[in-house]
Amino acid sequence: MKCKRVLSAVMAAALCVSLAACGSTASSSQAASTAESAASSAAAEPAASPETAAGGLRVAGLKGPTTMGLVNLMDSEDGADYSFTMYGAADEIVPLLVKGDLDAAAIPANLAATLYQKTEGAVEVACVNTLGVLYILENGESIQSVADLKGQTIVTTGKGTTPEYVLRYVLTRNGLDPDADVTIEYCSEATEALSQVQAGMANIVMLPQPFVTSALSQVEGLRVALDMNEEWEKVAGSQLVTGVLVVRKDAAEADPDAFAAFLDGYAASVEAANSDLEGTAALCEEYGIVAKAALAQKALPECNIVFETGEQMKTDLTNYFQVLYDADPASVGGALPGDDFYYGV
User: Which GO terms describe its biological process (predicted)?
Assistant: First the structure.
């Protein structure tokens, strides 16, 4: 019988709640304040010793694609060697990681960069686990390229966060002035933006998965007009990143072979998540990541779950961080991460 030592901080109630981390990012102020307060509180407490941590590597994940990519490892025999904990928000994870109560965590990429700065390089990024999940939807057929957005109104979320920076960057690199050529209306959350489309108040909306899947099933005539991951790659020459796995350097260095074995298991788990949709979806329901397996199975192919390491990881993150830094240095902790931020490179 497989040992399943998974602690769940929050139980999933619905797809859009349980998968909210699919498009989650930390705002500039959230990333900075969360990491700053965590680093300050941790300064007075000694970090836990990686060698004596019970249950092997202690790994935290957010509800959504991050944990969906891990779920096959969690359910495997090898998974019994690790302690997995799921959380509903990144700010629950950060203090534990900073203090050494966790060894590794799957978090938004820009928060990882901020943590690197606030902990003076005590963490490094081991892999990219989720690529871009933003899509522009249209109720109609007029938007076939970014250029077609000129003169249009785009409803979206994430003002002052990475969705805004991504949208403005793609528009600018396609010759459009985000402040003159288009009108961008920001909602407080994706459900609000979706409700405007449902009510016929908006025809063009930028949403993250899984809200895209939900919107397409609810609004007749709505279609995916632009995949922002593809549009980003056209102008940036690299892939758009959403989530990463960070690890405390002391934990990775305490037993390099053990950490490498964990990454091998993680890679196999991601491969299974992308090839065995039905089996992975069933595990997502079993572990409380989503309410129903059918919902998970529908969302899995659209969430861009990956396992990216080495030079490709560094290239994608370096380009991504540069765009965020140019938009707002605080979004990546005030400075770009050094080369020592990238594990194994």
Answer: menaquinone biosynthetic process
End-to-end CA distance of the chain: 38
User: Is 138 found in the same domain as 127?
Assistant: no
Task: For residue 184, list its beta bridge partners.
Answer: 154
Give me the pLDDT at residue 302, please: 86
Dig out the tokens for 147 from the structure: 């250029």
Q: How would you classify residue 339: left for phi > 0, otherwise alpha for psi between -120 and 50, otherwise beta?
A: alpha
**Bridge-based pairing state of the strands 104-108 and 241-248:** antiparallel
Task: Assign 44 to helix, strand or coil.
Answer: coil
**CA gap 270, 292 in Å, rounded:** 20
Nearby residues of 172 by Cβ (< 8 Å), 6 or more positions away: 178
pLDDT above 70 (res 40): no
- The C-alpha atoms of residue 133 and residue 203 are separated, in whole angstroms, by 20
Q: Domain range holding 267?
A: 6-132+239-341
- The CA–CA distances, whole Å, from 53 to 71, 249, 253, 307 equal 22, 15, 14, 26
1, part of any domain = no
CB 3 within 8 A of CB 83: no
Q: DSSP of 210-221, one letter per residue?
A: THHHHHHHHSTT
pLDDT of residue 289: 76
In a domain, 214, yes or no: yes
Single out the residue of 22, 221, 19, 55 nearest to residue 131, CA to CA: 22
